[in-house]
């Protein structure tokens, strides 16, 4: 299994990748934050800028409370 864009050959993922590991993607194309959705009650991922080996959080990860905040119930 790997990461790919439409029409491209998938890039292999590291063999030692485990649940909970972080993966950095240089670009996500159409699946960027602006196109993200919470329709499955999955929070959007954080947006992190990396420059010269330093990371800066631009947008924090959404948590369950963020997703439920606007829910008025039945």
Order of helices and strands: EEEEH
**What is the CA–CA distance across the termini?**
41 Å
Number of helices: 1
Mean pLDDT: 79
Report the count of strand segments. Answer: 4
Q: Could you say which structural class the secondary elements and strand pairing correspond to?
A: mainly beta
CA-atom Rg in angstroms: 15 Å
Number of domains: 1
Main sheet overview = 2 strands, antiparallel
> How do the strands line up in the largest sheet?
1-2
Range of helix content = under 10%
Q: Which regions have little confidence, pLDDT < 50, spanning 5+ residues?
A: none
Quaternary structure of the protein: single chain
Outline type: extended
Beta fraction: 15-25%
Cofactor: pyridoxal 5'-phosphate
Keywords: Pyridoxal phosphate
Organism: Streptosporangium oxazolinicum
Protein name: Diaminopimelate decarboxylase
Describe the structure.
By secondary structure, the chain is mainly beta. The chain has one domain. The chain is built from 1 helix and 4 strands, in the order E-E-E-E-H. It has one helix at residues 64-68; strands at 2-3, 11-12, 47-51, 54-59. The chain has a two-stranded antiparallel ribbon with strand order 1-2. The chain has a two-stranded antiparallel ribbon with strand order 3-4. It is extended, with a radius of gyration of 15 Å.
Question: Which secondary structure elements does this structure contain, and how are they paired or packed?
Answer:
Layout: E1 2-3, E2 11-12, E3 47-51, E4 54-59, H1 64-68
Antiparallel strand pairs: 1-2, 3-4
């Amino acid at each position: 299994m790997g990461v790919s864009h439409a029409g491209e050959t998938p890039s292999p993922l590291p063999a030692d990748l485990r649940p909970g590991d972080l993966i950095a993607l240089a670009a996500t194309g159409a699946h960027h934050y602006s196109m993200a959705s919470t329709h499955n009650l999955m929070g959007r991922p954080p947006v992190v800028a990396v420059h010269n080996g330093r990371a800066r959080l631009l947008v924090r990860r959404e948590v369950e409370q963020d997703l439920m905040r606007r829910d008025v119930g039945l």
